[in-house]
Structure formats: C-alpha cells, structure tokens
Known about the structure:
Distance between the termini: 57 Å
Order of helices and strands: HHHEEEHEEHEHHEHEHHHEHHEHEHH
Largest sheet: 9 strands, mixed
Amino acid sequence: xxxxxxxxxxxxxxxxxxxxxxxxxxxxxGHKGKTKIWWLLAASSLLQVLGKIHDFFEKRKLDEPEVNxxxxxxxxxxxxxxxxxxxxxxxxxxxGLNRIPYGKNNSKKGPWPVVYLQHGLLSSASTWIxxxxxxxxxxxxxxxxxxxxxxxxxxxxxxxxxxxxxxDSSEFWTFSFDEMAKYDLPATIDxxxxxxGQEQLYYVGYSQGSTIAFIAFSTDQALARKIKILFAFSPxxxxxxxxxxxxxxxxxxxxxxxxxxxxxxFYSDTFMEKIISTRICGHRLFDQICGNALFYIFxxxxxxxxxxxxxxxxxxxxxxxxxxxxxxxxxxKNGQFQAYDWGSPxxxxxxxxxxxxxxxxxxxxxVPVALWSGGNDFFTSPKDVDNLLHKLPNLIYHKRIPSxxxxxxxxxMDVSQQIYNEVIQMMKQNV
Length: 431
C-alpha cells in the first residue's frame, strides 16, 4: 500500500463508530454534512480494501519472477548462455532472433547441429522456455547438444520494427501469415545458416509455426532443401472442422472487425501483462478460473496444465496484426488452405494476378515431416489433421495423443515424455 493511502486510512480509521461523536470538531451541517461524512467513510474503506487487494496480488507476483522477465532474462535466470540478433526481411521488417548456442554442461566448441523453433499465433520465442528447464524444448535441445535458435514473427513484441515504415501506421500492419512464410522464414533461415556455416537445419513449428512452414517449403523449393526434417506440433493447414467457440466470429463481416478493432495490432500485451497476468491470473485464488477460460477456448485437459505457472504463460502472450486474425477467420469460414482474400476480385487481381486467392498445396512440400497432433485439440481438429496427412508426400511419423489440447504441445506437464524426447531421439538418429 502506498504511503499516501496509509496516511489517509490512518486519518479516517474508525472502530465501528458511525456517529458524528466519533469525529471531534466536525460540525453537524445537516443532511449535506452527513452525506459528506458517509462519502469519506466509504472512500477510506475503499482505499483500505484496495490496499489489501494490492498487497494480496503483489505477494504472488514476487513469487514468480519470470512473469516480469523478457526471454533473454529467463534464459539467463536458468543458467544458459544466450545471444540476440536482428534479421531484416526483404520487405524491411526487423525480426528478433534468440539463440541458446549450447547447454549447461556442453563445451562451447562446435559446430553443433542447428535447430530452429517457430512459435504459434499470439506468442513469441518465449514459448519454448516457459516450462521448467527439464520440460522446455529449447533448454532440452541445448543440453542434448544442439545449437538452438528461436524466431519471432513480424508484429509480435520482439519484431515491432520496419526500416521503412513506422508501427504507428496502418501500412506496417498490412500482413498475415502469407508474409511470414514469404519473407520472415527465408530471411531468418538464411541468416542462421550463414552465422553457423551449416547447410541445413531442423525446423520445429507449433500451430501457426507449422502453417507458415507448409507454405514456405511448398512454394520455395530452394528454401525447402535447407531443412533436414520438419517437426510439426498441432499442425494447421485447414481449419474447416475447428471446434473452439472462437469459430463463431467467422459469421461477422470483416468490416465489423475493423470497426471494432481497427486495422493495426490485434491484442496489446501491455493489458494482459499488467492486469490479467500479474493481478488476476497471478494469484492461486484465480488459477482455476484462468485455466478454465483457456480450456474453454483450446480444449480441456486440466491435469496436464501447471496451474502455478498460468500467470507466466499469459504474461508472455504477444500480438499480431488484425489482418492476420482476419486471414485465420477466413480459413475457418471457407475451409481452404489459401492466401489472404483481399475482399474483391479487383484487389485479388492486383495482388495475385487472379480474381481469387491462390491455394497452397501441401502436397508440393517434399521436406520429411514428423507430426504430433491432439485428440482433444479445439483449434487443430483431428479431421483437419487427417486431411493433411493424406496430402504430405514425405510423412515419416505421426503420433496422435488422445488427451492433448492445443496448449499441451508447449505447456503440457508431460510434453517432454510425450513429444520432446521423441523429437531429440529422431534428430540423433538422423545426424
């Protein structure tokens, strides 16, 4: 509680007394005077309650220092080496790139095999280090002898710059996962290979991170040849059978979205970090409520979520563009794996030289693919995954985990046993 609040409470403290006798020197000025007294009593009581609530939440926040750390600080907090870089795409976006070059017990000498990790929608590179070290893929890979790189898609907290345009402009936010596949991945992968002196790397993509891989590696064969194996968690190509209640938004015209949300950023992480994460979901009293909200959207699997870390997970949620969200909304509505629909034949002709958005063809991707999907995933429906499996010409492995929801692939308490150990084993067999 602040010193100012404490002084106010001290000045107006009372022990169950509500008459004017309890306030010596205060004259009775009739109805208005009594009203003022009651307002003062109410204000002092409110200040006292707010002070206690502040202390209540503040204690929990201090118990979880990772809530207020950035990715570099978290990596250092757990005792791992880290490096940060910036990659500039062909269209001018400046992307943050994080690296864990080796593990705690590994020699600095290399070169180590390179692994690239690509996060999903509304997240960042932090995705891969938010569990405890023995259950976070980035840390596990580093300890297993890999050179780990973690990307950040344009528009998230770590990639909010462009050398030509300001993020305050609408033009900055005119992108979707089309541009992430066309510009972000090639720039990032080429940068990593140049820095490490290697010719290929392993690619791990979660959710949207797998989507942009399917697009990039099916349309750019030169880039595809730089990938040893694509490991896809909760892979998304189509969303025809999406079960999350979020799919109800697909009935609204896109004009409504822009009227309500604007045409720039979707989701400001400041609100989530400062209010929901650290003040509400940051206390055990609300863990269950916050967890149930997540389950309602992403699928139920309560026993596999570490409720004590929900505030950490949510505090590292990041943003994207309104256009990207509308592109996903189109995918739910039309059930197609296709480029962004600009809304009219003329606009599409201008961007694609055809009146309709081009379809993406997963069958054109020759990269070896290993997939892990969930049977209880409200975002990536098993039906959509089955449709994808039939189109992949070089599928080397698929595992469906019946209990898994959409979040378990990165936050699940048993994710190392169910997925990560298998990934590392497959990499070792392939080296």
